[in-house]
Design brief:
- The complex is a heterodimer.
- By secondary structure, chain A is mainly alpha-helical.
- Chain A is built from six helices and two strands; from the N terminus they run αααααββα.
- Chain A has a two-stranded antiparallel ribbon with strand order 1-2.
- In chain A, α3 runs antiparallel to α4 and α5 runs antiparallel to α6.
- By secondary structure, chain B is α+β, with helices and mostly antiparallel strands.
- In chain B, strands 1, 2, 3, 4, 5, 6, 7, 8, 9, 10 and 11 form an eleven-stranded antiparallel beta sheet that branches.
- Chain B starts with a helix and ends in a 5-residue tail after the last strand.
- Classes of the chains: A mainly alpha, B alpha+beta.
- Chains A and B meet through α4 of A and β3 and α3 of B.
């Protein structure tokens, strides 16, 4: 295994970076330039992919279960959906803290409007990571069903039981969830554009690997 | 001993009387019948449904859910001073159960749950009543739901104020003992077997404690 890896590195054109050469060119001050990050760090990638799967799964379950008639399946799905939603909320909080403490790699070269759009979508995605589960939690509380995380940990109700409020929060939760869905589609659309049209290696920023 | 008891009783009587007076004073002008009911002899005790509540709590996937019965009635032949001779019975209209969620309420009346079309009422019929002191009693009786009969002991505490006696208490039961939740719903990991029943019954015209 070790030998194989060493060989790989030896044959990889990107393995020995161009840094020393660049430093040589900028001769007078032999201070090495800071290594520019071209990838998200491992923790950020883990958050991204785990939450991507969790959010798509939880959204799908929510979409499917909403109109089910009363049944044991419905009851189970509702609880699983709530447990997953609270888990996503907690992971998103940790992810936000990590994001604030760790700068992502610099933007790839692209027109200003695309940079603006990319940043706007990312900020809105983060907002939705909180708005969707929080509105769902409030909806559950207002409907008179407090959330007991994984059937073990009772979570506080930050709104009381209130039928009219529950109806409103149901709409709000759905609105935010579909909003998140649209943002995810925009995000995916941009990835496809960068991979297929620009071929600028954008996707590699979020993929583990070398170079 | 007797002297102390007498003192205690007179103090109790005094406080009940003064409480009755304070509570009744503003209402006296409009509601003469209430005053009459308060003075009614023992044995004529009547449930006041509007001020009474029978609630049940169970857990579904860990989530506590509380429900109420909206319709029930009681037959009370009970003198607190002669509790052993008392007889108490309750009839609860099962179709009046609500947990405040229309879809679930519609489910509760179905055969898997209360099967209200077959047997619409649940009953409790006392078999013996023990005085525990301090206004507390232990009522043993037969609880019948869905045709399933089980001996049940219900602790009851009585308080009296303004001619109204309030009976409160709570007891635990197992839903599967009464076939509440059949078929796939027997799974207690989804709906727990334990059900807490809590009640507050307002009674007019009961003899004083």
């Amino acid at each position: 295994m070790t030998t194989l890896n060493d060989n790989d590195n030896a044959h990889d054109p990107d393995a020995a970076p161009t840094m020393p050469a660049e430093a040589d060119i900028a001769a007078p001050a032999p201070v090495p330039m800071p290594v520019l990050k071209t990838r998200y760090d491992g923790v950020a990638m883990a958050f991204h992919w785990v939450l991507a799967i969790a959010i798509i799964g939880t959204f799908s379950v929510g979409w499917y279960m909403a109109d089910l008639p009363f049944s044991m399946t419905r009851l189970k799905l509702f609880n699983w959906h709530k447990w997953a939603g609270v888990t996503i909320l907690a992971l998103s909080a940790l992810r936000l803290l990590w994001r604030l403490a760790h700068r992502p790699p610099a933007d790839l070269p692209m027109p200003a409007w695309q940079k603006l759009a990319a940043h706007a979508v990312h900020w809105l995605l983060y907002a939705a990571f909180f708005a969707v589960p929080l509105s769902g939690w409030a909806y559950s509380s207002a409907a008179g069903f407090p959330i007991v995380w994984f059937g073990v940990l009772p979570l506080p109700d930050f709104v009381g039981k209130d039928k009219a409020l529950a109806e409103t929060l149901k709409e709000v939760h759905g609105f935010f969830a579909y909003g998140l869905g649209l943002l995810v589609l925009a995000h995916l659309g941009a990835v496809v554009k960068h991979v297929v049209l620009d071929k600028d290696g954008l996707l590699r920023r979020m993929l583990p690997g070398r170079g | 001993m007797t002297a102390r008891l007498a003192t205690h009783l007179s103090i109790t009587a005094l406080s009940v009387l003064s409480a009755a007076f304070i509570l009744a004073a503003p209402a006296m002008a409009q509601t003469k019948p209430a005053a009459a009911a308060a003075a009614a002899p023992a044995g004529a005790a009547k449930l006041v449904p509007a001020q009474s509540d029978i609630a049940f709590t169970f857990r579904q996937m860990g989530v506590p859910v509380e429900g109420h019965f909206k319709k029930f009635d009681a037959q009370l032949a009970f003198d607190p001073k002669n509790a052993a001779a008392g007889k108490v019975s309750l009839a609860i209209e099962l179709a009046s159960a609500t947990i405040g969620d229309a879809a679930t309420d519609a489910e509760l009346v179905k055969p898997e749950w209360f099967d209200t079309k077959k047997i619409p009422t649940a009953t409790f019929q006392s078999t013996s009543i023990k005085t525990l002191g301090g206004g507390k009693f232990e009522v043993a009786g037969k609880l019948t739901i869905k045709g399933q009969v089980h001996d049940t002991v219900v602790p009851v505490a009585l308080t009296q104020a303004g001619g109204t006696t309030t009976a409160t208490g709570a007891f635990a039961m197992k839903r599967l003992d009464f076939k509440i939740g059949e078929g796939e719903w027997k799974d207690t990991s989804i709906v727990a077997n334990d059900v807490q029943v809590k009640f507050k019954l307002a009674i007019a015209g009961m003899a004083p404690l």
